Amino acid sequence: MSCFERSWIPWFCDIHGNEFFCEVDESFINDRFNLTGLRELVPHYERALDLILGLDPSGSTGEDEEEYLTRSNAEEREARTLYGLIHARYIMTDSGINQMITKWNNGDFGFCPRFYCNEQSLLPIGLSDIPGISTVKLFCPKCMDIYMPKSTYHQDIDGAFFGTSFPHMLFFEHPELRPKRSVDNFVPRLFGFKIHPTVYE
């Protein structure tokens, strides 16, 4: 379905590979205070914002088809970047956190591959709040470690679209959801005897 046949935000979130994103409320986007500082990070900021809010015209006069497609593709990339940066701020709010909790409970972010974490649900996290630095990782609140997403679609998502603080804010606001820290660890053995760490030194 084309993004022009319905609102851009649900269209974007329904794209295969964008399952980690929640739908940012348009009222949050329309409050320009929430967008402070983003203009400097996204080329053609106003055009990208209009596209997200459905204010962008679907056509343009004075362009041939190739020029139109080139411009449209560039604006689409910029809109996705802007939405991602807005998304990182939105999921720090009560509404955003609640949406992400629902996705977390549904296992939308995957499960910890560590055996002793017993398939603990993961949460998305970035290693930088600056776009273009690193891709999204998945945080396990049980072993307190991070992992690469399994899907190659998710491995290309910018980590700045989730930020470095989201999981910690979630558990700060909802401490009752924090799982107990895993205390079990694998102990290497040789013929039944524990291997002392100094053996490998």
Automatic annotation (TrEMBL):
Q: Which keywords appear in this protein's UniProt record, sorted alphabetically? A: Kinase, Transferase
Pfam families attached here? CK_II_beta (PF01214)
Q: Name one GO molecular function term.
A: protein kinase regulator activity
**What does the entry list under GO cellular component?**
cytoplasm; protein kinase CK2 complex
Q: Does the keyword Transferase apply?
A: yes
Classification via InterPro entries: Casein_kin_II_reg-sub_N (IPR016149), Casein_kinase_II_beta-like (IPR035991), Casein_kinase_II_reg-sub (IPR000704)
User: Among its keywords, does the record have Kinase?
Assistant: yes
Tell me how this protein assembles: Tetramer of two alpha and two beta subunits.
* Similarity annotation: Belongs to the casein kinase 2 subunit beta family.
Protein name listed in UniProt: Casein kinase II subunit beta
